[in-house]
Amino acid sequence: MSDDARPLDGTHDVAPLASAPSAEIRRGQEERLAKTWQTPKGWRYWSDVNNSSVGLWYTAAAFAFFLFGGVLALLMRVQLAVPGNDFLTADRYNQVFTLHGSVMMFLFAVPILEAISILFLPQMLGARDLPFPRLSAYGFWCFLIGGVFVAGSIFFDAAPKGGWFMYPPLTTAYQPGIGADIWLLGLSFIEIASIAAAVELIVGVLKTRPPGMRINLIPLYSWYILVVAVMILFAFPPLIAGDILLEMERAFDWPFFDPARGGDPLLWQHLFWIFGHPEVYIVFLPSVALIAMIVPTFAKTPIVGYSWVVLAAVGTGFLSFGLWVHHMFTTGLPGISLGLFSAASEAVAIPTGVQIFCFIATLAVGRVVRSTAMLFVFGGLATFVIGGLTGVMVAIVPFDFQAHDSYFIVGHLHYVLVGGTIFPIVAGFYYFYPLVNGKALSERLGRIAFWLILVGFHTTFLPMHWTGLRGMPRRVYTYPSDMGFDTLNLISSIGAFVLAAGFAVFLWDVLRPKGKQPLSKRNPWNAGTLEWLAEMPSRSWGVRSIPEIDGRYPLWDQPNLMRDVDEGRFYLPDAEEGFRETLVTSVIDAQPIQCLRVSGPTFITFAAAAFTGGAFVFATFYWWWPAAICAVLGFASILAWLWTGTAAIPEKDMKDVGLGLSLPLYASGPASVGWWAMFITMLGDMTAFVSLVFGYFFYWTAREDFPPEPTPGPGVFWPSVAAAFVLCSWGLTLLARRGNRDDRPLVFYGSLSAAVLLAIAGAAAFLAGPWLTELDPTEHVYQATVWVLAGWTAAHLAVGVVMQLYCAARRLAGRMTARRDIDITNVALYWHFAAITAAVTAAVIAGFPLVA
Amino acid sequence: MTLFRLLALPAAGEASLWLPEQASTVAASVDEAWWLVYWVSAVFFAIIVVAQVYFMWAYRRRAGWTEQKTAHHNFPLELTWSIIPSLIIVVMFVKGFLGFLDMRMPPADTYDITVVARKWSWSFIYPNGVVHPELHVPVDRNVKLVMSSDDVIHSLFVPVFRVKQDIVPGRYNYLWFNATKPGTYDLECTEYCGTNHSEMRTKTVVHEPGGMERWLEDRIEDIMKMPPIELGTLLYNQRGCSQCHMVDGKGGTVGPKFEQTFGNRHQFTDGSQAVGDENYIRESVMNPQAQVRTGFPPTMPTYKGLFREAEIRGLIAFIKSQNPKFKAEAEREYAKPAGETEAGDASPDSDLPDGGANGAASADEN
Known about the structure:
The complex is a heterodimer.
Chain A: H1 23-36, H2 51-80, H3 90-124, H4 133-152, H5 179-207, H6 220-252, H7 265-299, H8 306-319, H9 335-347, H10 349-365, H11 372-395, H12 397-403, H13 407-437, H14 443-469, H15 486-511, H16 554-557, H17 561-566, E1 580-585, E2 592-598, H18 604-620, H19 624-645, E3 654-658, E4 661-664, H20 673-702, H21 717-741, H22 745-772, H23 781-812, H24 822-851
Antiparallel strand pairs in A: 1-2, 3-4
Chain B: H1 2-7, H2 27-58, H3 75-104, E1 111-118, E2 121-125, E3 131-132, E4 135-138, E5 142-149, E6 154-158, E7 163-167, E8 173-178, E9 183-189, E10 201-207, H4 211-224, H5 228-238, E11 265-267, E12 273-275, H6 278-286, H7 309-322, H8 327-333, H9 359-364
Parallel strand pairs in B: 1-5, 4-10
Antiparallel strand pairs in B: 1-2, 2-3, 5-8, 6-7, 6-9, 9-10, 11-12
Helix pairs in contact in B: 2-3, 5-7, 6-7, 7-8
């Protein structure tokens, strides 16, 4: 049991080259690598897509939003410092607290984890870049545009004011301003960027590990990121589905949440918290991941109970999807569901506790070095434990009735999020900072910042537990002086400024000019994981040669690893053809299977993001024409990006990657990273669709009048015809893939053309059902739900048609051949999902009214 | 010692730093669950933090220390720290869930109060028809609140009772409690409901035995003292008339507008006709299905037994005054307090308080 790091199949290790190549050869290699991976200069710097640039921008932007959210928090504490204060008006205060929550969750907590991962994950995996650098860049620009749009709204007194939870009907019928639309469209846009990053990170962890890094040797950080990215994939789509429904009600009066017309406000709460609870763990687990990297380094010993930590991380992620109803205990749901969700909410304490126990045990067996990073880890764990324990308290239903929507919860959630997320992130800054610019942060300033933050934090948030239990409700902009809240609120407000002072010291430490400070020494903390191979300052190529790994802490386990990597004794020490290359390995065993060429700098991802952003921003103002034009241009930019930047046919089949290994330069199907990305994206897409179907059945269980009697449409005929067309189109797409592979152009073009026509006919037939039966979506929720399902399916078919035409064009242009068939393989994969979507839609909208 | 009692173990029912005083039958069991988890948490927090600090200190790196191979696995230990907390959690869950079941199921015999929440005020409707913006309940009696919302989601919270329930539009939500201590307490909305969410608070008054009945009678007396037209206006707004009948361009459209009711000739679905007079209005309230106007659905419910004579007088006065032609006449005719003409209710003093000064009317207009 004690040595589970041994190779599972007993294969022998691949040794590095016995002697280093000559200095001259190495100089040539380094020149070519440097040229290939060069960061663009001047204004072209912003066209960079490499993970080190994009990750840095991403981190900086997310941190800027954190500071913005922090200033909003200070405004609130000023307002609440004394009773009956009029520093902010009620309306302004409501904008401020809504934006504080939304910014911290959507513009800081989730993005910062993606940012840090984009920055360091490739280095931890000994890869030169993530598999889809341009996707990261696209995600970053989307995030920046959407974030500035949402956050900036407060300067125009137009910010959302429905709370970060946006409960209808307050946010539908009673807030006519533009704020709610900014929230819905601006943040949906960012959620899409988050999903893009999740896809990138999942494929990165699964496919771009160094040879030999079997699944049981992955650094814990990568395990956590894998878990979190999978959670994002299943948690964000329900919220996107909810956003669509809420925006449809606001923009077009489709009554999804209007009880007078069959809607139900509770559907939003379900969709929101199916996202919202996993969200807590999505922002918390990556920080635990940082702790899991920092603790072993400073204890100078491997983590204790690696497999338990991994199991606990997976278990926490899994359980977190079963907790959402504990945000709805007071809505009057059936007792049995309260019991189940209460039990699950308490049970999640177990895996969380196991992780903490493992960290403490690691401290016990190791020898701990004093450092600021460890100080923040310690403060974070102690704070988080309090938040976790108050979490167990509110999982107990009768006590939750007392605490729910009171300041007790405000205290609880800040202990969880600040202790569990922000402290470890600051620790991560102190730990990883030398990797970014080669210089360390100041230990002395760090300690000052730590004590200010720790004392300030507890002074701010501990009293909130007491005001809450005394009955102070959340989200009040002021309170009368006779309720016993005065002193405690004043203490909280003073604490908030001490906390802010701590962050000011930290910010100064990060930003202060470090020109005279000597470079940090290489691997300054004597860590054991691969990211510390980096030179100081780090080189744009990332890792000089990609090593073969046999343990969890290669720098501790493998003697001379740094020398061997530096001298190019491992894989891919060169860039002979001038392409950016990295290795792709198999999912379980990490056997090398492909040499992947990733794309380089471009402005097209920026253009794509700007136009996509334009579509969302203009739609917020109901300026439909500019929005439509931007959407078309955004779509065109993405097509141009795909056409020029993906699935390029290499000049040769195989490449010698060193150490006597030859790998293919092109792979399609499950061997390719593109196939995995499509598969993972479609899982997220399918989750959004399932959420819409869930809505249909939710109305059926919750409302007597769903579906109405007699059912007004869409009938059985049109949906059945539509499904039949789509299934034929799907079959013909598969036939086209076959025709391409067999190099029979007639079969390929013939079946693809027929597939296009059938898909168009199918989409039209889906819309014809509700159209011809004259379903008015504003009349009742039934009609609206049928339209939404039909519209969702038709939109997917439209995208599917573009994909089919794209494949035909690729072959015509000679960019796809019988053997180089990534495009049609991935499109066929898309069509599997499109066919399922169409079949389920038809079965629900045509079949269900018959059996209901 | 005082500090310890505040932080750790207050006497039964007394307020501590953590929890306000207990004033309902379920409060004690809620607080027991809380103290159980509180102490378990305190112990775990102490163990975790002490262990962390101790290990970081005791096993700090000293000069001259050389690396040695360490264990990174200990199955019995890992099993122990997984199983013991699991068992503790099972105990806490059972304790909490049993308490929840008690709070969930209202007993059979309850005193029912209807609650209507709206932005940003409360209406409590008592069994005798009194409507008031404060919650008044008898002590030691099972009380059930039947709650609905006119607009957005609200949530009713009485901290000393340890009860809270959301009020979701489109459905009824229920809440029950049994108040054990007479007194005046806070009641507030805890679900964010828009601009003035902070202002949506009122009082809960728990009456001594007999006090509730006296209070309700006083409220009826207030009604009797009101000028009839004003009383009618109040009833129109509070008792559901406005849901269907329009006045001044506001209100529902299901039933006839009140502007045209008094003094006009009406056609009924059974073919008969009548002029809208006092008798017609009275009959429409008490026995609405007897004369359904053509062009309107027969959906008006009867209010027989739900209004006092004085209240019916008030409604007639209000409806009459809505027709501009009869407004002056109605004001002359109904100048005396609504209760004045009734034998038993007539109050001896003839100088009338103006309606705005009494509790029910003024408070509800806020």
